[in-house]
User: Fold this.
Amino acid sequence: MGKIILKKVNKSFGATQVIPGIDLTIEDGEFVVFVGPSGCGKSTLLRLIAGLEDTTSGSIEIDGRDVTGEAPARRGLAMVFQSYALYPHMSVRNNIAFPLKMAKMDQAAIDKKVTDAARVLNLTNYLDRRPGQLSGGQRQRVAIGRAIVREPSAFLFDEPLSNLDAALRGTMRLEISELHHQLKTTMIYVTHDQVEAMTMADKIVVLNAGNIEQVGSPLDLYNKPDNLFVAGFIGSPRMNFVKGEAAKPWNAPTVGIRPEHLKLSKESGTWKGLVGVAEHLGSDTFLHVNAEGIGMMTVRAGGDFPVTHGDTVYLTPEEGRIHRFDDKGLAIR
Amino acid sequence: MARAVSTRRTVVFTIAAWIIALIIFFPILYTIITSFKSETEAIQGFNIVPSGTVESYQAVQAQSNYFKFFLNSVILSLGSTLLALLIAVPAAWSMAFSPTAKTKDILMWMLSTKMMPAVAVLVPIYLLFRDFGLLDSRIGLTVMLTMINLPIVIWMLYTYFREIPGEILEAARMDGASLWGEIVYVLTPMAVPGIASTMLLNIILAWNEAFWTIRLTTTNAAPLTAFIASFSSPQGLFWAKLSAASTLAIAPILIMGWFSQKQLVRGLTFGAVK
Ligand SMILES: Nc1ncnc2c1ncn2[C@@H]1O[C@H](COP(=O)(O)OP(=O)(O)O)[C@@H](O)[C@H]1O
Ligand SMILES: [Mg+2]
Assistant:
């Protein structure tokens, strides 16, 4: 079990308020991702849940039990750190066994659990090495191994993939998702990378300056962003925003349209513009178009759309895909 | 071609390094050489080939009991090192792991005490030692040496402890380690190399300390530094005997330094190379 409820959780470091007050419910078995720009308080929130920081006010409940004042170890959670935080003087085996030793489990049971975890994580041949003798991906797996043997009620991950190269990040992302399907344990995953958030999460919590901007499934956030911040943060490349005169036809101060929801034509369309840089990814081509009266817009074209720098093109938004926002940046529905 | 040049450079640098090392080491070498000369030889001027006589050593041993001084040196340097560690480990620990706004100031203040010349406090300390009956006592001198080296010991330990990443301690806490478990299984093993090299360095410093050991002792508590000094006073200068005494005094610490050099170097460059 691992249902976590935050009630008016507030955190200040001295005079600086980092988390002004958060209410959030995380259901048992969910994969929740906290996403937001660097410095927005994601790690702080995770550390509050872990018990590594004390809340300034508010309360945290795990499975109906108030754990606000409890020590980290007593919360039954496991954490995987960005730096892996492996014990450098212990073998991989002892690293993984450490939480079990601390729990005074008997040696036979420890051995079995470590062996099982090593098999799941492809670490069997590395059990007698020190962390210093492993690659980044292997260290990451040891850190995960140390977390899973405890059978925690929830896993906490703080940007676990940010020290890995792009290819390995892709693989580890899948491995962690796969692990979640096998274990069905609550996982809270912190990242600043919206692609990680979109691909892994059941539920995304978008944070900005310590506040929750929106909570929802990846597709909810993609299709119905509550405000300009979420609209701009979720989705890659970024949503285009059209302001002022050009937004008038939709009766809103600002409208947003994603690059993939603009139709591209060489003959006619709503907005006229000049093609700037084209980014060819093979499957797609992203064109940066300087549209008259709007400015730079990004458009997704097919992999082989024939344009060159300086061509004139026309853009037409798909009607049903236009997002409208009021003066305060909130979505108008 | 490039290869030949680089080989020549290596040779040149190796020779230069040997020459510099020899210049630095030469005073010690010359002391050892002189200790194997007779007094007449020693006084005759520069000569690096001694006759090889051991009469100076025999004279030194006959004149005063080397072993007693040696024992005092061991007691004082080990005792003051242990006492310093006992105070410094918790102090450095708390400053490294739960620093406050004043931590930096405290550290600077500690260091500043080392900037004062020792002679400036000679009189008050001498009087205090006299009034409390600590003159020429091992306990008094152990405390004195502890105080002298404490700032350096705390600084060294502080830098070592700072190198231990906080996330590892947090990981231990998450893994259910109690404070005691954290100290025993995680912190201590990671801190031991740093503590060991601090200890070695402090033993050397305490062993070689000559200002206070000579002034606050006469016979009972006198270590090897006083042993050396005793050969430079009474009946004029005896270079060969003085050299023999010096050689005997530095030999133990040289041997210890030789055997622990790996640990010492590793400790002193901790963090620089990882
Ligand atoms: N121990 C601390 N003391 C003071 N300020 C802190 C501390 N930890 C974090 N902060 C501040 O809180 C804010 C959020 O930090 P953090 O939660 O690490 O952000 P994120 O993980 O989203 O990048 C930052 O502005 C950071 O400077
Ligand atoms: Mg962070």
Summary: Chain A has two domains: 4-232, 238-325. The interface with chain B takes residues 50, 52, 71-73, 77-79, 81-83, 85-89, 98-99, 101-103, 146, 150 of chain A (CB under 8 Å). Residues A 42-43, 159 surround magnesium ion (ligand 2) (CB under 6 Å). The domain at 238-325 of chain A is CATH 2.40.50.140 (OB fold (Dihydrolipoamide Acetyltransferase, E2P)).
